[in-house]
Specification:
The protein has 267 residues and is mainly alpha-helical. The chain is 55% helix and 4% strand. It is globular and about 70 Å long.
Length: 267
C-alpha cells in the first residue's frame, strides 16, 4: 500500500522554529513579550541577558550581582588559549567574526568549563544538605567522590595566583546579597565548606578561584550549570573581542604561537 505524504501547510512551516523568545513581524520586534523599543534605553545588557535566557526580569540587586560575575571574567591575558587563538587568527586576515569565533571555540571542559562543573559540585552538596545531611558531612562526601575521579576540583586553586584577586570582591558582594535577602546563601556556604575541606592539614592553601566565585553567583541566582558556562562564554567574548581588535590593528601578519626565533623541539 502506497502512503501519500501529507503536504506541509503554512502552519507547519511557521511552527518549524516556534519559540517563546522573540516575536518578529513587520514593524514588530518583541523579546519575551516586551517590545524592544521599551527595552532600548531602559534595560541594561546584563538584565536583557537574564530576560532572554530565563524569560523573567531580574531585580536590580540580582542584575548587579550577575553583572559583577560577568565583569570579573572578561579577560585573563594572552596566556589563555582562547585569547591567544583569537590573536593568532586575527593576524591571518580572516576578519573579526572568524577571530572571535576561533577564540570562543577553544572554550571547552578544560578551558572554560570549570564554572559549570563547580555549579554542579556545589549543587550536589546543597542537595544532600536538603536531604538531611549536615553541611560538613555532605561536603566531605562530595569532595571525596569528586577527587576519586579527578584530583583537580573545579573552582579551586590557580596556577598563577596564590589567591585569585577576583575572589574576595565577588564573595563580598555575595555576602552583601545574602544579608539583603537577594540570595539564600546556601551555595556560598557550600563553597566555603569545600575550601575548608580542601585546606585541612595543608600548609599551602587552595583557595577558591574565579570559576568558583562566579559559580557561587550563578548558582545563588538560580542559573543551571549549563547556563553558567554559557554566561562565562559571553563574558570572555568581550576579552576575545578586545584582543582580536588590538591584534588586527597591530599590522602583524601570520603570527604563530611563539616567536620565529624559537623553533619547536623535534622528537
Amino acid at each position: 500500500m502506497t502512503v501519500t505524504p501529507r503536504q506541509a501547510t503554512v502552519d507547519d512551516v511557521a511552527d518549524w522554529w516556534a519559540n517563546g523568545i522573540c516575536r518578529m513581524e513587520p514593524g514588530v520586534v518583541e523579546l519575551r513579550g516586551i517590545p524592544v523599543q521599551e527595552l532600548i534605553g531602559h534595560r541594561g545588557l546584563v538584565s536583557t541577558i537574564w530576560l532572554m535566557v530565563r524569560g523573567s526580569s531580574p531585580t536590580t540587586a540580582e542584575a548587579a550581582l550577575l553583572e559583577a560575575a560577568m565583569v570579573a571574567s572578561v579577560d585573563h591575558g594572552p596566556q589563555a588559549p582562547s585569547i591567544a587563538i583569537a590573536r593568532m587568527t586575527a593576524t591571518c586576515g580572516v576578519g573579526m567574526n572568524n577571530a572571535i569565533a576561533s577564540g570562543v571555540n577553544a572554550l571547552g571542559d578544560s578551558h572554560g568549563g570549570a564554572g559549570q562543573q563547580c555549579v554542579e559540585l556545589l549543587s550536589d552538596i546543597v542537595a544532600r544538605e536538603s536531604a538531611g545531611a549536615a553541611l560538613d558531612a555532605a561536603t566531605t562526601e562530595v569532595v571525596a567522590e569528586y577527587r576519586a575521579r579527578d584530583p583537580y576540583l573545579p573552582g579551586f586553586g590557580h596556577r598563577f595566583h596564590p589567591v585569585d584577586p577576583r575572589r574576595d570582591p565577588l564573595l563580598g558582594l555575595v555576602d552583601e546579597a545574602v544579608s539583603a535577602g537577594t540570595v539564600e546563601g546556601r551555595h556560598v556556604a557550600a563553597a566555603r565548606a569545600v575550601e575548608t575541606e580542601l585546606n585541612r592539614g595543608r600548609r599551602k592553601p587552595v583557595p577558591m578561584n574565579i570559576d568558583g566565585a562566579t559559580a557561587v553567583i550563578y548558582a545563588e541566582l538560580g542559573f543551571p550549570p549549563e547556563l553558567a558556562r554559557g554566561l562565562f562564554v559571553l563574558s570572555r567574548s568581550v576579552g576575545i573581542l578586545a584582543h582580536a581588535w588590538e591584534e588586527t590593528n597591530s599590522g602583524r601578519r601570520n603570527e604563530g604561537p611563539m616567536p620565529t626565533s624559537i623553533l619547536p623541539t623535534y622528537r
